[in-house]
Amino acid sequence: MESGYVHMPEPVIASVGASPLGHTDLPGRDLFSLALAEAFDELPAPADLVEAMYVGNQSESYEHQIMYGTLLAEWAGLRHVPAERVEGCAAAGALALRHAVKDVRNGEHEAVLACGVEKMTAAGTSGATDALSAAFDRAIEQRSGVTAPSQYALLAQRYLHETDATERDLAEIAVKNHANAANNPRAQFPEEIDVATVLESDPVAPPLKLFDCAPVGDGAAAVLVTTPDLAADLDRPQVRVAGSGASANSIAVAERDMTEIAGARVAAERAYEEAGIDAGAVDIVEVHDAFTVCEALLAEAAGFAPAGTGYQSYLPPAERATGWTDVQLSPSGGLKARGHPIGATGLLQALEAYEQLTGTAGDRTITDAETALLLNEGGVADAVTVSHVLTTAEAR
Prior knowledge:
18% strand, alpha/beta, 13 helices, two-stranded antiparallel sheet, Peroxisomal Thiolase, Chain A, domain 1, ten-stranded mixed beta sheet, single chain, globular, disordered N terminus
């Protein structure tokens, strides 16, 4: 008698691509075309492979454009495939990846395109500020005029008050990420900086200064999620998506503990559980360092650092406090220096992990890395967090 068990395919990432990041005259659809061209270089055309498509996009206000699923499917030459825009503020890209992974795992499709795009500079500084502020609770926070930097400044003030961290420690996180970005040809800011540059930069929302903050920029990314068999047929190096997790917390900062990012902890733990690992098994993590304090908080939430010591993320593993793992944080340069085109950010994290785990990351390669964690958050801190565990094809 048959058990009724149906083997579900294991999702893998088989190809990635990105546009240039930063300020550009190109509209979102053209940025997407550049990402798509890189992802499908030496592959069949998207129309010959892709069965569904998800687009991460934070806000329609930048280009006054909704229906991004349909628009980019058309731009990719796809017809009559399911194509959806997904939104979770800055976690939109990771949500697109999560949907693609679930489609393949459920056997619904064999090849799904997860992509993300944002044309932030089209709206100018005031427009970008307003678009990002839409991620705050309207009744409690938006109408008071708070901005993203001021919200994160509240978290930073509280973190500095409750821990031994100093503004210099936060500055060191920025210095570390710029040093990583110096080896990343995709980075928006591939220049190294020193602590004095950060500490002497203009105040944005104390204690956060200009160099504590990720930049505004444009960009797109594309990730092909498929089955191991199809990836092998395409003769592509593949990375397993071993686990995925997501969690939503209160949208309003006023309703949350500002130094315990509980939603991110839950999302990471769910991904670990699905992958059958714990935090100690992670070699590389791409964290959502929209502001330097985010890296400290997320290092603790993901289980890499004991409470109150996440700010030591810039130190070599041997110099961190007892209880830290040996994880390397944001070898791409993170949002801070690689860039943060909102809807594409979660997929840029996946791109970095793919290149690290397939040995194609060049001078920034972390030797012998087999497991990566992606942490992409939307709203302030953990209003929504999406996590993925990626491993080399050989790791089990």
